[in-house]
Amino acid sequence: MLAYWALAGRIACFTMPKLIDGRAIAEKVYVDLRREIAELRAKGITPGLAVILVGDNAASRAYVRSKDKMCRELGLHSLKLELPASTTQTELLSRVDELNQDSSIHGILVQSPPPEHIDEPAIVRALDPRKDVDGFHPENVAKLVIDEPTGFVPCTPLGVQRLLVESEIEINGAHVVVLGRSMIVGKPLALLLMQKNKNGNATVTVVHSRSRDLVQITRSADIVIAAIGRAEFVKADYVREGAVVIDVGINRVEDTTSERGYRLVGDVAFDEVSKKASAITPVPGGVGPMTIAMLMANTVKATRQSLLQLQ
Ligand code: NAP
């Protein structure tokens, strides 16, 4: 009888994956940030973040609102610049230049995607790399490649790494398979997790839409990270028993039972994959809250570094 209960307990443990709670981990980040911000303010310095939104994309507007709200909650100086969709490249460049020169602003972010007539890479290159808290400027990309810690790493990859570290998931030596090779998530994430340090040292494989034998590759991973923007693409047979699964995807699917007419799902088929995973992030409430927490962390880092440059 005892043996039966021991076995049942073990089975129950295995079929109940650890849910990685992004909201709770983001709160931990904010506790540390509040202390750092209080220290800076005691010296008369308030970290400042400027967010530029061009046009009226509804999703972008919502993201900008939540960034502004979080800044205010933490006591940061928040500047929200809402420009009309007709804003020209020259006008936008001149706004970026003003913010580059503004000493009350330590971080600048131009919400993506801008309207089509805007040359986004040129705008990113115009940012002062010391204020590029999104980590998209070529100088910061290079710093990530050469393991230079003064650079800024894009917020979502940084958030994914922090989720793994805080959940005590071993990255060192693990085989991580990243689905997706975008400059916002997949590529920087691969670089970050293969860095030669205690929160890196992973063996990273990146797969994308042209990869052959994708399922065979993902099944060999200790950690699967999905960032492809395809609703519930990663099924149970994509992961091995006991793998850790991080879902970066945010996809809207029609849901007539919801007031909004849609619901949010990730790139992972949560119900079936969670039965095999040892740990998994939900959508929403997984990676999403970490992205904004890392934006705040990058802004505080930019402020700290700006003080060192003044010395
Ligand atoms: P993206 O720029 O569209 O890149 C998607 C990547 O996935 C590309 O590399 C693409 O391959 C690959 N891909 C597409 N279909 C595939 C398939 N069937 N098999 C294998 N690979 C495939 O997207 P992104 O900006 O990285 O965003 C990815 C997802 O993460 C989206 O759902 C987005 O909303 C979400 N996201 C969430 C957060 C957050 O805070 N939680 C932040 C950023 C993004 P190719 O390169 O070959 O085209």
Number of strands: 11
How far apart, in Å, are the first and last alpha carbons?
71 Å
Inertia-based shape: globular
Oligomeric organization of the protein chains: single chain
Number of helices: 11
The run of helices and strands is HEHEHEHEHHHEHEHEEEEHEH
- Contiguous runs where pLDDT drops below 50 for at least 5 residues: none
Helix content: 40-55%
**In this structure, how is the largest beta sheet organized?**
6 strands, parallel
What structural class do helix, strand and pairing data support?
Answer: alpha/beta
In this entry the ligands are: NADP nicotinamide-adenine-dinucleotide phosphate
Mean pLDDT: 95
Which strands sit side by side, in order, in the main sheet? 1-11-8-7-5-6
Q: How big a fraction of the residues is strand? A: 15-25%
What is the radius of gyration? 21 Å
Describe this protein's structure:
With 311 residues, the chain is an alpha/beta fold. Helices cover 43% and strands 15% of the residues. The protein has 11 helices and 11 strands. The protein has helices spanning 2-15, 22-42, 58-74, 89-101, 120-126, 138-145, 155-166, 186-193, 214-218, 270-273, 287-310; strands at 18-19, 48-54, 77-83, 107-110, 175-179, 203-207, 223-226, 244-247, 251-254, 262-265, 279-280. The strands form 3 sheets. A 6-stranded parallel beta sheet has the order 1-11-8-7-5-6. α2 runs parallel beside α11. The longest helix has 24 residues, at 287-310. The model has no long low-confidence stretch (mean pLDDT 95). The protein binds NADP nicotinamide-adenine-dinucleotide phosphate.
